[in-house]
């Protein structure tokens, strides 16, 4: 699936531990409707496994795998909206050749789990982008901070370097439960994105 390891030094992602590299959780949140509908169609993808929060040791090998999976899926899947693909505003599924932001992250999550990453460290996350529009990314929780895999860029950035406003994400304890990443509830949290996210 993925070629030679991309040479990235894990030292590049080391920062002052007091700079807010970990996201703060503010309580419970409602899951996106597209996720709820996907779980109803494919319950095995959303089953609870009795997990707990994980800060995965970010070794150089793991960092390379994260980068490679992000780059590989971004290149493999063409950006296209759910409306264009399925005739509905929100439809979460594993893409084969085209999809929108949540489809990219589902495929990345599956690949990383197949490479031995624990699902408790791979959390679906909903944000507002620079234009205040809904978007979804995959958060990898590590001992060096929370990093984001995004279909809009191949670089893997720490969450607070993306320019996004973080709304909510899956709970590590139970993927069907979601937690809030903001102190105030978003006005519209039912859907993720109105259109395809461009790379």
Describe the structure.
The protein starts with 27 loop residues before the first strand and ends in a 19-residue tail after the last strand. It is α+β, with helices and mostly antiparallel strands and 199 residues long. The protein has a seven-stranded antiparallel beta sheet. A two-stranded parallel ribbon has the order 2-3. The chain is globular. It contains four helices and nine strands.
Number of DSSP strand runs:
9
Which ranges are low-confidence, i.e. pLDDT below 50, for 5 or more consecutive residues?
1-18, 193-199
Strand percentage, roughly? 15-25%
In percent, how helical is the residue content?
Answer: 10-25%
Number of helices: 4
Q: Strand-and-helix sequence, N→C?
A: EHHEHEHEEEEEE
How far is it from the N-terminal to the C-terminal residue, by CA? 21 Å
Q: Rg from C-alpha positions? A: 16 Å
Strand order of the largest sheet: 1-9-8-4-5-6-7
Q: Main beta sheet: strand number and arrangement?
A: 7 strands, antiparallel
Structural class by secondary-structure content: alpha+beta
Shape: globular
The pLDDT mean sits at 85
């Amino acid at each position: 699936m993925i070629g030679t390891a991309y040479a990235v030094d894990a030292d590049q992602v080391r920062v002052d531990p007091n700079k807010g590299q970990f996201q703060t959780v503010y309580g419970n949140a409602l899951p996106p409707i597209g996720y709820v509908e996907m779980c109803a169609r494919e319950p095995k993808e959303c089953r609870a496994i009795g997990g707990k929060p994980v800060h995965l040791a970010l070794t150089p090998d793991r960092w390379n795998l994260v980068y490679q999976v992000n780059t590989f899926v971004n290149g493999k899947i063409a950006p296209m909206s759910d409306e264009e693909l399925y005739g509905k505003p929100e439809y979460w599924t594993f893409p084969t050749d085209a999809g929108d932001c949540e489809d990219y992250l589902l495929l990345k999550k599956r690949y990383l789990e197949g490479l031995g990453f624990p699902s408790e460290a791979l959390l679906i996350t909903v944000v507002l982008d620079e234009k205040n529009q809904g978007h979804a990314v995959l958060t990898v929780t590590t001992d060096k901070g929370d990093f984001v895999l995004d279909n809009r860029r191949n670089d893997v950035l720490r969450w607070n370097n993306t320019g996004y406003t973080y709304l909510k994400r899956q709970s590590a304890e139970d993927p069907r439960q979601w937690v809030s990443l903001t102190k105030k509830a978003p006005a519209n949290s039912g859907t993720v994105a109105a259109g395809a996210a461009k790379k």
